[in-house]
UniProtKB/TrEMBL annotation:
UniProt lineage: Bacteria, Pseudomonadati, Bacteroidota, Flavobacteriia, Flavobacteriales
Name this protein carries in UniProt: Vacuolar-type H+-ATPase subunit H
Originating species: Flavobacterium nitrogenifigens
Superkingdom of source: Bacteria
């Protein structure tokens, strides 16, 4: 019986210690919340002020970027129209030239035979 009473006392006192520790932790947590409340409010206020300042500072930059984007869009549109016209002109020119080459009215193509005279003949070499 001495061994069972030892374990009962051991686990019983451990249970009481755990309960006391939990109560102490809960109390400490409440104190920490109370102590941190002013700092949390200050941090929230600081964050709100910082966001407002960023909005104020970034507004002109955003407006400027929007203006720049609009100008870029106008320029690109202008050059796109010019490029479209130029490509269209090139296509028309190629079509005209292709039509001229494939039509029945085109002149006959004359081929010539070319002799390579770069080699020296036996007579010119002096061996004949």
């Amino acid at each position: 019986m001495g061994l069972s009473s030892f374990f009962k006392n051991l686990f019983g006192s451990t249970k009481e210690s755990a309960t006391e520790l939990a109560n102490s932790a809960e109390s400490t947590l409440e104190h920490a919340k109370e102590a941190a409340a002013p700092y949390i409010e200050k941090a929230e206020t600081f964050a709100e002020e910082a966001i407002e300042k960023v909005k104020e500072v970034s507004e002109p930059i955003i407006d400027s970027a929007a203006e720049y984007a609009e100008k870029a869009k106008e320029t690109v549109t202008e050059y796109a129209e010019k490029a479209t016209e130029a490509v269209s002109d090139v296509i028309d020119s190629v079509k005209e030239k292709a039509a001229a080459l494939t039509s029945d009215d085109s002149p006959e193509v004359i081929t010539e035979n070319v002799v390579d005279v770069s080699e020296i003949s036996d007579e010119e070499d002096g061996k004949a």
